[in-house]
Amino acid sequence: MIATFSFIGGTEGAWRVRGMQAVAGAPLPFVEAIAIRQEGSLPAQTGYDGSAWTLRGVASHARYATADEMVRLRARQAPLGRTEARFAALIPIRKSSAWWSLAQDERRAIFEESSAHTAIGLDYLPAIARRLHHSRDLGEPFDFLTWFDYAPHDEPAFEKLVERLRGTPEWAYVDREVDIRLERET
Amino acid sequence: MIATFSFIGGTEGAWRVRGMQAVAGAPLPFVEAIAIRQEGSLPAQTGYDGSAWTLRGVASHARYATADEMVRLRARQAPLGRTEARFAALIPIRKSSAWWSLAQDERRAIFEESSAHTAIGLDYLPAIARRLHHSRDLGEPFDFLTWFDYAPHDEPAFEKLVERLRGTPEWAYVDREVDIRLERET
Question: How would residue B47 be classed by pLDDT, with cut points 50, 70 and 90?
Fold first, then answer.
């Protein structure tokens, strides 16, 4: 089912920003905290008084995973929100028009057969939990909002995960990426 | 690139309704005319005073076609809006949750290897021009809005096209479909 999420950057929210880095393309304005709202249908593109930006995305169906890959992911993945998962990362990503003009089989081949995107992710399960939000059809500035949570002692593993993904052929099509690291307010 | 379209059912618009039929699931309220608006980013879900409904969708990238299929489609397809294409059809479609919980390879296999969706469509090019709008991520009541235009003398071919598609295994996953036939105001 469709679930729409808004990530609101500003001064309020359950997640305090530890750092923000523009990996590719334009940065986002720096904020102190991020609030996450889940909404049943498409929310207005508004935050709260004084918020700096709102990014929206939809958690919907998988776009590249095969049935076999989905079975392996489900067998190993952990849910978001575990007590020990006090660290998180919000990584908004935009891919180039060259990517989106490729056919489905060409994108799939780059995503998995060349870049092993799912296979790399599997190496970090269940330590790193993840939810992908699709933003492209919403006319948003990013195509995806990737959200991860993990225990603080798993941050080195998370660094390795993003480093491996950024070295793949798939990442040649990423033209904007911002890496935002967070810590849950206690 | 992303282009968002609103189809506004009511009493105004360039397209006069010749007939509306609920093929599966709940019907849409009958209207006299449909107005089409193209918007740069996501439009508000509003029509005009007195309009009955507004359906929104995004024309974006292909979700199942292979590179080879895209080459064959591009070689044969005609643009929308030809002078002789005075007839049109707007067919909003929703697929079941069973469809959306399938993996990409399973959906692709049903779409083309079992149902020959693209191959069937190719048989009616260039007579029938087409644009697909994606609505699912927008939280809309339908997943797709399919729009076709054609010359009046090609309506029998269009009937054959939709009859063939509705007989495919893919259509077992269609749980709502409304077939709206239109004529351009001259």
Answer: confident
- CB B123, CB B72: distance < 8 Å: no
User: Phi first, then psi: what are they for B28, rounded to 5°?
Assistant: -105, 150
Question: Closest approach of chain A CAs to the CA of B153, in angstroms?
Answer: 33
Q: Which two tokens stand for residue B168?
A: 């495919």
Q: What secondary structure letter does DSSP report for A68?
A: H
Lookup: tokens for A134: 């699709």
Q: Do the Cβ atoms of B43 and B6 come closer than 8 Å?
A: yes
Which residues in chain A have Cβ-Cβ distances shorter than 8 Å to B69? Answer: 103
Q: What's the pTM?
A: 0.92
pLDDT at A165 over 70: yes
Burial B45-84 (b: 16+ CB within 10 A, else e): eebeeebebbbbbbbbbbbbbbeebbebbeeebeeeeeee
CA distances A110 to A48, A106, B63, B106, B164, Å, are 39, 6, 15, 19, 34
ipTM for the assembly: 0.88
Nearest-by-Cβ selection for B104 from A1, A41, A64: A64
Give Cβ neighbours of residue B114 (< 8 Å, ≥ 6 apart): B168, B169, B170
Contact B137 A66 (CB under 8 A): no
pLDDT of residue A177: 98
> What does the pLDDT read at residue A113?
94
Structural contact between residues B73 and B42, judged by C-beta atoms closer than 8 angstroms: no
